[in-house]
Design goal:
With 172 residues, the protein is mostly helical. The protein is built from six helices and two strands; from the N terminus they run H-E-E-H-H-H-H-H. It has one domain. Helices cover 65% and strands 6% of the residues. The radius of gyration is 21 Å and the shape is elongated.
């Protein structure tokens, strides 16, 4: 029988799945609201909004058209969750690998746990943004715009704070 190796986790490097499950729940709630209110949605269905939340593009209402922003959001949520898990695994194994010829190309080894921690909140905020876009015809221009623009502003704030924190850690 072969020896099994136990992977020692790097302190502070882990996937907090609560963020990703929260993002999935936001999108699932959006789908349930859209499907429950499908008959109440306008036809022609607004497919494009201006910066103020005023509809300026329309198409014939269909399930595919109504759920398209949620499907795009769900695809991004899954992609970010998978990349988060892969990134954490890469950081965990970076210390166990022997020094190699191409280590200078491994950007995950050059970054620390702070580069991983931001992916969870980013995922949740992206789900809120896509939910806001999807729910504009249901909740109205004001509430949908607040969800969309509020989520985008918080997303930029999280990324900016993460960038500032990473630069401070690099300096000293």
């Amino acid at each position: 029988m072969g020896q099994s190796t136990v992977e020692e986790p790097t302190p502070g490097v882990r996937v907090c799945w609560a963020w990703h499950w929260g993002a999935a729940l936001v999108l699932a709630a959006t789908v349930s609201v859209l499907l429950a209110r499908y008959e109440d949605l306008p036809d022609p269905y607004p497919v494009h909004y201006g910066l103020t939340g005023t509809a300026d593009g329309f198409a014939s209402r269909s399930h595919v058209l109504v759920l398209l922003p949620v499907v795009i959001g769900a695809t991004l949520v899954v992609a970010i969750a998978v990349s988060h898990a892969v990134h954490v695994r890469s950081l965990r194994t970076a210390l166990q690998r022997p020094v190699g010829r191409y280590d200078h190309l491994d950007w995950t080894a050059q970054r620390g746990p702070a580069s991983v921690a931001v992916l969870g909140p980013v995922n949740l905020l992206l789900a809120v943004v896509f939910s806001g876009v999807s729910l504009l015809p249901v909740v109205g221009a004001l509430a949908g715009s607040l969800m969309t623009w509020g989520g985008l502003c918080l997303l930029v704030a999280v990324l900016a704070a993460s960038s500032v924190r990473a630069r401070r850690r690099q300096r000293g």
